[in-house]
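Course assignment 3, question 2. Fill in each field.
Student: A.L.
Task: Predict the tertiary structure for the chain below.
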Amino acid sequence: MSSSAISSELAETSGTQPDSKLPYKMWWSGGFYPHCVLLASLFVCTDAVPISIDKTKVTAPEEKVQEAPPSVDTGLHYDRYLREVIDFLEKDQHFREKLHNTDMEDIKQGKLAKELDFVSHHVRTKLDELKRQEVSRLRTLIKAKQDLKGGKDVAVDHQVLLKQFEYLNHMNPHTFEVEDLDRLIKSATSDLENFDKDRHEEFKRYEMMKEHDRREHLKTLDEDGKKKEEEHYEDLKKKHADHPKINHPGSQDQLKEVWHEADGLDPEDFDPKTFFNLHDTNGDGYFDEQELEALFTKELEKIYDPTNEEDDMVEMEEERLRMREHVMNEVDSNKDRLVSMDEFLVATKKKEFLEPESWETLEQNQAYSEDEMREFEEHLAREEKDLNQKSVDLQKQKEELERQQEQLNAQKVELQQAVEHMERLKTQKVEPPPEVNVLDGGNAIPAAPDSSQPLPPGHMQDTSHS
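Answer field:
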């Protein structure tokens, strides 16, 4: 089958014109969901009929309903709320029409948010309910985090809390207003624009921690062990670097390789327009970030094999991200994080596409400098010192508590012994000792008998002094 025939067939089955432009797609993929399907894929699609044909004389083809591909989680902590708000807004006819006719810049400036005042009462009621649920969820989440950190005694960072509420107006937790939609658009746009930057930082920390662990392991070995470990490390690096040539991402050579190996077509028949239609997997007329990243799989397989000890799959995903960012920077002229058919075709005529420079892979571009590594290890050392000090403090507290417990136990034993002694005295019924009188001379004599007691025989009571 020729490339032109393939292109025609793809245009028919997709139900859209390959070069059609839908501004609202930019909002979904460029501002809100650069890592998800376009908003248009959530709509019901019908076959397009060429304008030049009289529709009254054309038999309408059977309507084809395309299933929306599964959305990819954005990674935002309010991802579900974002999806639900968009889902209900696009059900409103007025808002849907405005979305079609609003460009990305106007959306970012808040012009689309003002259209919220004109949506149906049913949609506004549902949005109010979604907001109340989201405020409740966020409050529960924050409380749970505080409880984990120690409850009421822990100081609260109010700036961090406000940042978590930034995507909605928490001063009004009951109704969804224009300000809420404006905040949601701006927050999601900003957060997603920083998404790749955050991924690079996470990867850098991963690489530095891996190197730190390796160096710490070397400290535990003797000289012979260190030598063998270093030799093994260098051997793995050489094995990893020994791979076929990597084509420059997005170049003619790289795309032709995909055309030949993945699509099974003759490289001599390479046609950019047909290639675009083949790999625009959701048929929306754009390459989104996932579709672009899929084009680099063959290149990445040259470098990384999950069965090889020397190949790190975390590094593979970082390499994929680097390739996608490079192509976006080269091809995405309007910076909407989408590649249209027109942008793609223009790029295929550039010198960078036809005669690209060699591509430097990760092993040729270390993610961190030695200064960054030193600062990272110093940070780890400080953290370890703090943890050790806390451990010492906790041990002292434990010892003090144990000492106090021992004292309490000893007092408990003494009290128990005293109680037992008193119980024994009661059971033995011990008689009290006789009373004694002490004279002035200090000699004790028995006390006079009680006058109430009878005297022995032969004794008379002296009553002369009474």
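Instructor remarks: Residues 6-70 have pLDDT under 50 and may be disordered. The chain has two domains: 15-193, 195-368.
Grade: pending
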